[in-house]
Amino acid sequence: MKIVETVFGCAATRLRKADERVLIAKFRKWVSILLCFISLCLPVLANEIAVSSKQSVKVIDGDTIKIINLYDKTLKVRLSGIDAPELNQKYGEESANYLRHLLKGGDFVIWSTGRDRYGRLLGIIKVNNVDINLLMIKSGYAWAYRRYLSSLPQKKGPQYLTAELNARDLKLGIWVQRHPTSPWQFRRSKKSRQ
């Protein structure tokens, strides 16, 4: 009897090990499929940040905002593809106030385009599917930031340039001035004075 138990015991053990190997192989297959799916979907999910009126939004200037308590963090966002006057520059306050006005409702989406060299999130802000970055340019409160237009998604670069040219022609915002100083020139001249 002992011999029979030993033979059947070994066979049962071998059978259990074979079942385990099949189960492990199936599990690995499903995990790899799941990981593949997540890796395909994650960039899409990570590129959009919804901001609600429950979160505190501070406009730093015409092209930078700070979101406080977003997932227990403070997030600084630089609007992609635009450059607005500095606060201590002519039309700097007006540009910041216009951005404040556009974000007044509180609910908006930030479509992330990466990070800048200062670690700020770069993004296109949309309120009710309206591109706020583009609206800042169209209204004459920001320049199309030519240096970075090629990195914008969905061929937005040409749209931003056209919007700037139209604002110039209509003499809106900063374009009321005959020769407005661009923010990058303003920053450069400020550095050279120091």
Features of this protein?
23% strand, 9 strands, 194 residues, alpha+beta, 2 domains, two-stranded antiparallel sheet, 7-stranded mixed β-sheet, single chain
Question: Could you describe the 3D structure shown?
Answer:
With 194 residues, the chain is α+β, with helices and mostly antiparallel strands. The protein has helices spanning 2-46, 92-102, 132-138, 156-170, 183-193; strands at residues 48-51, 56-61, 64-70, 73-79, 82-83, 108-115, 121-127, 130-131, 143-144. The strands form 2 sheets. Strands 1, 2, 3, 4, 6, 7 and 8 form a 7-stranded mixed sheet that branches. Strands 5-9 form a two-stranded antiparallel sheet. A hairpin with a 2-residue loop joins strand 7 (121-127) and strand 8. Helix 3 (132-138) packs parallel to helix 4. The longest helix is centred in the N-terminal third of the chain and has 45 residues, at 2-46. The chain starts with a helix and ends with a helix.
Task: Write the SSE topology.
Elements: H1 2-46, E1 48-51, E2 56-61, E3 64-70, E4 73-79, E5 82-83, H2 92-102, E6 108-115, E7 121-127, E8 130-131, H3 132-138, E9 143-144, H4 156-170, H5 183-193
Parallel strand pairs: 4-7
Antiparallel strand pairs: 1-6, 2-3, 3-4, 5-9, 6-7, 7-8
Helix content: 40-55%
Portion in strands:
15-25%
CATH architecture descriptor of the largest domain: Beta Barrel
Q: Please report the total strand number as a whole number.
A: 9
Q: Give the CATH class of the largest domain.
A: Mainly Beta
What value does the Rg take, in angstroms? Answer: 28 Å
Global morphology: elongated
Average pLDDT, to the nearest integer?
84
**Number of discrete domains:** 2
